[in-house]
């Protein structure tokens, strides 16, 4: 049935009268996402920098080891069903919502119990009883996460940006505030466990308060569950592969090195994820429902994919250039000399954001088309690439692990682009060729500013205020060089990007 809460779901595909309205909604969504994400970045940086001064790399690594299983289970539990709900035809959305709720709740409960039972295995893998204790204590977050699936999916489905404006900032502020407060109080690694639970409780409360949905409005059926599961199965496999990569990386670092190295790896990975996550959070939240609506119009679908890919890839390349050129000194200046290895890992993992940018657009296009089974290709490349690159490069230490992460993510992203090009009807050669100008611009920027920093300036040897000012100036210089080179090698692309920025900026009015 159709409800007032969902008057215009993704099933309204390709209607010509809705073109202007949809474009305005998308621009407004990107502006809202960008604004709230800027706040989230500030909170995340403050949390990382503060906790790095309060906790040791070994304590951070212990938490990473103890939560590696729950993180894996959360990503495989019900997110695929959430995407199926977003993409679902509006005629039976209430029945589908109740079906997804029951399925995700039962799955979350079962996986929480499984995580609790498997906690001793975590201790054996990392040779740490403390890691096993943390794994057992944190097993309940999987159940809490399952409660957010339906209200969050329904908000995203109807372009309700309160999740971006209210829920996400509140969750981030809760996690940071509780973690820092408990760390100051001397709880050590347990400050992170308490903060994790506190943030999930806030997430559940706000999602249900704002989602405007309660179970019991529809009638769940096994037929609906089978249909939704059939659509979401490739997404579950894709998410499973993604988290298996992180599990494999964490276990490899923990087994070959030590808990302190796991902490260095976790912080390097977390910092490298911020730019890539920025691109995903700002753009992909609106791309999935948008692609779902226009997938029935081949010309609009193809043009929308090409345009979104150009913007996201260019932004990803510019951010990656900053990390390669300045990653190590950024970490040393912000976190201190004990975290230098995390800085090396950060610079090596700069390719993570590149792969995320490619996948952010391409995967959403594939999902929006309803052909989610094609994501098996990216899943296979993700798993095989991660294992292969890690086995070859891990002997180089954290730097080698970082390079392996970058290589695997870029390979996965390129695979996603090829798949999405076939889905949208775009020529693969043209799509891949459109990626080259940003690579050229990023390479020139890295060589120029990287040489300046590492041969002349040495920001990590300066006092904190001078070091921060120096890095800020060099980051702006990277962007300046990037844009100048992009204008020279691809003036039409640069013009199109400026036009996109102007259109998005107009959404503020």
Outline the secondary-structure elements.
Elements: H1 19-54, H2 57-66, H3 68-77, H4 79-87, H5 93-126, H6 129-137, H7 141-146, H8 149-157, H9 162-184, H10 190-211, H11 222-256, H12 259-294, H13 298-335, H14 340-348, H15 351-368, H16 376-393, H17 398-424, H18 428-433, H19 436-457, H20 464-489, H21 491-506
Helix pairs in contact: 1-9, 1-12, 1-21, 2-6, 2-12, 3-5, 3-11, 4-8, 4-11, 5-6, 5-11, 8-10, 9-10, 11-16, 12-13, 12-14, 12-15, 13-14, 13-15, 13-19, 13-20, 14-17, 15-17, 16-17, 19-20, 20-21
Concise account of the structure shown:
This protein has 509 residues and is an all-alpha fold. It has helices at 19-54, 57-66, 68-77, 79-87, 93-126, 129-137, 141-146, 149-157, 162-184, 190-211, 222-256, 259-294, 298-335, 340-348, 351-368, 376-393, 398-424, 428-433, 436-457, 464-489, 491-506.
How does this model look, in words?
This protein is mainly alpha-helical. It has one domain (16-506). Helix content is 82%, strand content 0%. The protein has helices at 19-54, 57-66, 68-77, 79-87, 93-126, 129-137, 141-146, 149-157, 162-184, 190-211, 222-256, 259-294, 298-335, 340-348, 351-368, 376-393, 398-424, 428-433, 436-457, 464-489, 491-506. The chain is globular, with a radius of gyration of 22 Å. The two termini are 35 Å apart. The model is unreliable at 1-19 (pLDDT under 50).
